[in-house]
Amino acid sequence: MEGREGYGVPNFSWVLVIVLIVIMSMTDVCVSSPRRNLLANGLAKTPPMGWNSWNHFNCKIDENIIKETADALVSTGLAKLGYIYVNIDDCWAELVRDKEGNLVGKKSTFPSGIKALADYVHRKGLKLGIYSDAGYFTCSKQMPGSLGHEEKDAKSFASWGIDYLKYDNCNNDGSNPTVRYPVMTRSLMKAGRPIFFSLCEWGDMHPALWGAPVGNSWRTTNDISDTWESMVSRADMNEVYAELARPGGWNDPDMLEVGNGGMTKDEYIVHFSIWAISKAPLLIGCDVRNATKETMEIIANKEVIAVNQDSLGIQAKKVRMQGDLEIWAGQLSRYRVALLLVNRGPWRNSITAHWDDIGIPPSSVVQARDLWEHKTLKEQFVGNLTATVNSHGCKMYVLKPIS
Ligand SMILES: *[C@@H]1O[C@H](CO)[C@@H](O)[C@H](O)[C@H]1NC(C)=O
Ligand SMILES: *[C@@H]1O[C@H](CO)[C@@H](O)[C@H](O)[C@H]1NC(C)=O
């Protein structure tokens, strides 16, 4: 990126205002109680970290996979880095509820029951997540949804020791998600256990605009797949709502694909870097029991994780782009700034970030820490920083003004 010809990214505030008006005209829920926090569970001060079964295993899950994954999170050191949620996705329950109307773990794959699994996971110092759906059936149609059974199911989850609920949007009754999702929020609050509530509404009705009192995170996109195009398009869709993320409630561009094999190492580094700087949930989606050294280098990068878990909880924005070259930046605690230079084009290219685009006073002298090289650059920077960035690669820094 040369000189200052780069055009700024359009200001999305007006888009949000229009969308908000449209949504308010379609539902009365957010109009009648826009500010009341239904979900005062005190969770998610920083984005959640852990693992989820879907991206790698789909419906082919059983209790051994969940236990071995919990074991692997501990033995690899990932748990110590903050990856504490072990989240079971779709297909864990019998298709038919028991005589009392309760969900039951699938006998053939979860014979010990979900409570025993929660006990196992808790003994390792981890937390167990589960999955349901704000409809009649889940997306796989292999288990019932919770629509009309919210209180009963929330009670079951709490009694088993569940710590996190991902709540999908398939096979519903056509009513508004702004009506269906808060029913589960209230049921979880009544159930007597703090349970992280993840709204998997796919961004259909812009949950970033109404999700904060309802959930601890909300999907802003439909499902990710393990390709560069899918990944960057979700990053873009999620970026639009940056101003609406905050401690307690996060934008969610879907789970990580790092380690599943569909992208190059550089592309997975871009994936992890954008998710981290965007304060997205960091939910590993590969088989951690046999994660390669390369995968571990990415998901176990402490310095990048620290950006994600920064106490301010400010989601970075794309502050400037020129064609395929992008500058993402966001404020961190202690007057620091996280900077990500992304090259989406086919050739290596140089990218310059200017202080006035990234919220640093123009005369500040800045020290730069390269988070993937793990080194503090000797040079001190005034006014701008330039780096050469590989095709489908990135450079990520923490910038610290030193005068
Ligand atoms: C990964 O590890 C599990 C359990 O250790 C094993 O059953 C599975 O075959 C392994 N997969 C690959 C691809 O090596
Ligand atoms: C970067 O800043 C330096 C002064 O510190 C200036 O000499 C240089 O021209 C700037 N580079 C760009 C590309 O603006």
Features of this protein?
single chain, 403 residues, alpha/beta, TIM Barrel, Immunoglobulin-like, 2 domains, eight-stranded parallel beta sheet, 12 helices, 21% strand, globular, binds 2-acetamido-2-deoxy-beta-D-glucopyranose, transmembrane, Aldolase_TIM, glycosidase, disulfide bond, signal
Low-confidence stretches: 1-10, 27-34
Helix content: 25-40%
Gyration radius, rounded: 21 Å
Strand content: 15-25%
Please describe what this structure looks like.
Mean pLDDT is 93; it is low at 1-10 and 27-34. The protein is 28% helix and 21% strand. Strands 1, 10, 11, 12, 14, 15, 16 and 18 form an 8-stranded antiparallel beta sheet that branches. Helix 9 (265-277) packs parallel to helix 11 (302-308). 50% of the residues are buried. Strand 10 and strand 11 form a beta hairpin. The protein folds into 2 domains: 49-309, Alpha-Beta Barrel (TIM Barrel); 317-401, Sandwich (Immunoglobulin-like). By secondary structure, the chain is of the alpha/beta class. The protein is built from 12 helices and 18 strands. The chain crosses the membrane at residues 12-31. InterPro entries: Aldolase_TIM, GH, Glyco_hydro_27, Glyco_hydro_27/36_CS, Glyco_hydro_b, Melibiase_C.
